[in-house]
Fold:
Amino acid sequence: MYQRVRAYIRRYHMLNSEDRVIAGVSGGADSICLLFMLTELAEEIGFSLTAVHVHHGLRGEAADADAAYVGRVCREQGVKLRTFCEDVEGYARRHGLTLEEAGRDVRRECFLTVLREMNGTKIALAHHQNDNAETLIWNLCRGCGLKGLGGIAPVTDVWIRPLLCLRREEIESYLGKRGISYCTDASNLEDAYTRNRIRNHVIPYLEDQVNSRTVAHMSEAMEQLRLTGEYIEQEAKRYEGLCVRYGPDGTAVLDEEGFWQVPEALKGYVLYGMLCRAAARRKDIEAQHVRLLAELLKKQTGRRLDLPYGVQARRCYEGIELCRAGSYGADAVRADMKTENVPVRMQILERTEDMVIFPETPYTKWFDYDIIKSTVQIRHREPGDRITISGDGKTQKIKQYFINEKIPQKLRDGIWLAADGKDIMWVVGYRQSQRYQITDKTRRILEIEVYGGQGSGGEY
Structure:
């Protein structure tokens, strides 16, 4: 099983020797398996490992016992541990969330806190194929698009999930054969949460009455759907670049004539991308909002529509104009840019407390605008280019980076780079420099989107 996880990590380029990995360890079978796998991999690959345990303050002595167990295992394995004690119930009450939602948010913030403090590069979570199957069923039941059908991704920016290639039964078997104990959260056996009901009733029924390999088949289908979704997303962004114009004041204008040339299957994606960019957020932007935008195109000039985050849509002669209260900054000189053949968009966002820090697409990245020294260029590699690969400032020549990542020689000259002078901010489609990561001190964010193609580069 170790070899399968190792191969899965290699396939998705999850880890390398320079990484500083933060692993979420609750004490359950999944996270204990993750801890032992990463400990063994750390010896082989050479990355550093820190475990993080979050005590939710909900299960009394049982939760205390889990924390104590995680502490003992980490000491035995020689793994540094950070433990957080949080009031999840109070957090849920203050933010109007369920305990499940609050727990997820609190854990995420704890992981990110350690990531920042330790100049970490990756956060490893213990999701496996059964979790993914539960997610697929839950998304289908409450309604979702192609992205939701793709389930949990193996890699999302700093978040990695090395165990997504395994079923829960395989994890428990691995621990049993090695004589490794783990904690059992009794609340997981209760039906208080929707996900628990899916886990305890729906999936067992499907495996027993329909197909014993239900979870494995769902995992295979989700992988194909993720790949399809990534392709469609890139195509939609390409069309978005042809029919949507963004202004430095936060406005966006959809050209109606160009929009009708977009394939029907991609129209909704184009409108969604336009609205998310105007709002500077993705959370709570839903299908109903996209539908309202599409309907606005059929109405008379001058009609208006209020959308989330203070965005207002107006039917204009050209098509649809979106504007949002405030602006992205007076020095956002160009928020829309295209090279000769490669559409590239850049815009400056003012940092807000509820702003999502990590865009989910591999071709959209956020950078700390306040530390950029030169005019940002989108270009191919040049002699002397270097990228910062660790939080302590360690750099690597781009040539060596390509070699380490086993990128074929014939592809290297065609890979786009976002460059601040000779400092490479982003190897597009691959890695983002540690130097330009968003931190607590960041006040302005430079967002860059690149949509494939071949061209001569450009400037911002």
In short: The first strand starts at residue 20 and ends at 24. The radius of gyration is 23 Å. The first helix runs from residue 2 to 11. Confidence is low (pLDDT under 50) at residues 326-340, 452-460.
